[in-house]
Write a structure and sequence with these properties.
164 residues, globular, Arc Repressor Mutant, subunit A, 2 domains, Rna Polymerase Sigma Factor, Chain: A
Length: 164
């Protein structure tokens, strides 16, 4: 196989991954960073790492889990090093595919601390089980279950406070 054809094949894999996972990665990053532009940067950095460092994946679930872990770490690092600024994020929810009917719930979720938003997203939206989330986030399954439990409690209080 020539270098050019190998390059084209690798490019097709990257293009496929971008098309398949970018919305999910953006949503996860956005829930951590609360800023559209920073989330876009985090997703871009994730795909750069995908192109340069990605291991061989067992299957698409392994690939997705790897990408989620990377975007989570990149987003947390970005949040840690940037100046904390209030988000205009809630106003931009339509841009990331949130239906108008879900807006109140999403706004309540966005007011939760990042560690609860992340596990709630991975569990309820992405469909991961607690042990899978633990592996992705590098925490124990018990910690994931506790965050889910506490996150649900906080979300319920937020929804009651906003009248939903």
């Amino acid at each position: 196989m020539s270098i050019k054809s190998q390059y084209n094949e690798e490019l097709r894999y990257v293009e496929y991954a971008v098309n398949k996972y970018s919305r999910t990665l953006f949503r996860i990053s956005y829930s951590i960073l609360e800023n559209e532009h920073d989330a876009e940067d985090a997703v871009q950095e994730t795909f750069i790492r995908y192109m340069t460092k990605a291991p061989l994946f067992r299957d698409s679930d392994h690939e997705k889990a790897w990408l989620i872990r990377v975007v989570t770490n990149v987003s947390k690092n970005m949040a840690r090093f940037r100046m904390h600024q209030s988000a205009s994020s809630i106003l931009q929810l339509n841009d990331i595919g949130v239906d108008e009917g879900d807006r109140g719930v999403i706004e309540a979720v966005m007011r939760l601390p990042v560690k609860y938003r992340t596990v709630l997203d991975l569990y309820y939206i992405e469909g991961y089980r607690a042990n899978e989330i633990a592996s992705i986030l590098g925490i124990s399954a018990a910690a994931v279950r506790k965050r889910l439990q506490y996150g649900r409690t906080l979300l319920k209080k937020e929804l009651e406070r906003s009248g939903l």
